[in-house]
Structure formats: C-alpha cells, structure tokens
Amino acid sequence: MARIVVITSGKGGVGKTTTSAAVATGLALEGHKTAVVDFDVGLRNLDLIMGCERRVVYDFVNVINGDASLRQALIKDKRTEGLYILPASQTRDKEALTQEGVEQVLQELSKDFDYIICDSPAGIERGALMASYFADEAIVVTNPEVSSVRDSDRMLGILASKTRRAEQGEDPIPAHLLITRYAPERVDKGEMLSVEDVQEILSIQMLGVIPESQAVLNASNAGMPVVLDDESDAGQAYRDAVARFLGEDRPHRFLTAQKKGIFGRLFKG
Ligand SMILES: Nc1ncnc2c1ncn2[C@@H]1O[C@H](COP(=O)(O)OP(=O)(O)OP(=O)(O)O)[C@@H](O)[C@H]1O
Ligand SMILES: [Mg+2]
C-alpha cells in the first residue's frame, strides 16, 4: 500500500509544484517507487517542471473517464528510476475530477507504488479538496509572508476536518511545514517573516526551509526538478527535507544571511 502525500498551501504560486517535483524525485532517488499526480486541472505545470510535457498523450481525467488505462497515462521519468508522472488534464471542466474517480485511480496506484505525491492546485475549493481528501500525510508549503501563512492556517483547518480520515473520525493526518522562497537578508530587514514567526503561527512540525534561489528558475526552465541540482542551495535543501520526511535527523541550513549568526539564535535548544 502506498502512502499518499498531498502538497498543498492555500495560497497560489508559493512553490507547490516545484516541491511536488522535488519531493517525488527525492523519494525515488532514495529507492522508493513514487508516482506524482497533477491535480491542477486546466493548468498542467507539473509535466513542464518534470520536463515530460511532450510525452503527454493521456491524462488523469482520461483515466477517470475510462478513455485510457492508468498504465497508458503514466509517464516514466526519463532521468530517475522508479519515478512516474500522471499529468493533469487541460480540460476547462473543473468538475472532471470526481471523488469516486480520484479514489479509484489512487487505489490502483497504491498497489504498485510506495508513495503517491499529489500536487494540489491553489485555493481551498474543489480541486484542492480533491487532492487532499485521500491523503495520509500533508506537506504544507508556505512563503514567509502574512498572506501565505494565513492561507496555510486555513488549509490546516481543512486538513483537520475535510479529509476522509477526519470524516471517519480518525486522527487528523500529520501535516509538515515547508517554508519556501526564504530570503534571510529580507527577514533581517523586517520585510519577511522569520522561520520562528511562521512556525509559531502554524505550530506544526517543520520539514524544511528552501531558500529563494535562482537555481529553481533555471531548473524549471530546463525541465529538471531542482533537487537533481546537487550544487544548488535549493537542491540541497530539498534533499535534506526528503531525508527528514523519511525520518532522518538533519540540521536546517541556509537560514541566515551570509556572515550573520541568527542560526544559533533561532535553533538553540
Ligand atoms: N525556492 C524558490 N526560489 C525561487 N523561486 C521559486 C522557489 N520556489 C518556487 N519558485 C518560483 O515560484 C513560482 C511558483 O512556483 P510553483 O509553480 O511551484 O508554485 P505553485 O504553488 O505550484 O503555484 P500554483 O498555485 O499556481 O500551482 C515559479 O516561478 C517558481 O519557479
Ligand atoms: Mg502548482
């Protein structure tokens, strides 16, 4: 049985798709057979970031509608062994992802995969609810700014009340915080919230902090998940986050502006 992990945020444009691609690739690199599923009907960003957009023939909605089998729609990643992508449909019909259809596809994927990573669309409506409904675990992506943190807080409320697990009266699904686009110089200037601020407001376990990095844009232009760029700060930070997700204890890095020692202040004790 696969573990289903939703990558969600509330607010748009904070780095969910970048994170989905990075985490899925990172898990596959660690030897876990992983499928990454694009729930963003109408947009299709994931296949661009994974560099497989030209190979898309069938998509998630085709599988739900029975126009194609899951096997036909899944795209094998060209770089990383054990990694598969299920692209989103470009239909304008936001109702195309039915709960029964999604459940069926996730169940079928579950038989074959260790992890299923669900790339949620922005917002807290249908698409996002569908992406999180069947999740066993959530990674909540937040930028260090008030509006993003506020929307993530609303999303935490939804995760605690509107997932299948919540409806069945089970414990709420574990939610991990991933802060992305972190720029310590701007935190020092008071233009951004600090890691500590964000953590205090959301008070969930912190999986990692991904620095604001040109490497993310370069990687996405090249159609390559940034986690494969070992030289980059963002790539290394994503590798660390995946290792922590798998239970390893790693210190947080890239939290301070160069030559300023707030690291000690933030993480002492
Ligand atoms: N760590 C980072 N450093 C710099 N740019 C980043 C970083 N993370 C994401 N970005 C950029 O932010 C933009 C939005 O990223 P992404 O598409 O992953 O967000 P999203 O949350 O999936 O958006 P949407 O809500 O529209 O689905 C992209 O241009 C991406 O390159
Ligand atoms: Mg996205």
From TrEMBL:
Residues 5-226 form the CobQ/CobB/MinD/ParA nucleotide binding domain. This is Septum site-determining protein MinD. GO terms for molecular function: ATP binding; ATP hydrolysis activity. Keywords: ATP-binding, Cell cycle, Cell division, Nucleotide-binding, Septation. Interacts with MinC and FtsZ. Gene3D superfamilies: P-loop containing nucleotide triphosphate hydrolases (3.40.50.300). ATP binds at residues 11-18. The keyword Glycoprotein does not apply. Belongs to the ParA family. MinD subfamily. CDD domains: MinD. GO terms for cellular component: cytoplasmic side of plasma membrane; cytosol. It comes from the Bacteria. Pfam families: CbiA. SUPFAM superfamilies: P-loop containing nucleoside triphosphate hydrolases. ATPase required for the correct placement of the division site. Cell division inhibitors MinC and MinD act in concert to form an inhibitor capable of blocking formation of the polar Z ring septums. Rapidly oscillates between the poles of the cell to destabilize FtsZ filaments that have formed before they mature into polar Z rings. It comes from Ectothiorhodospira mobilis. GO terms for biological process: division septum assembly; negative regulation of cell division.
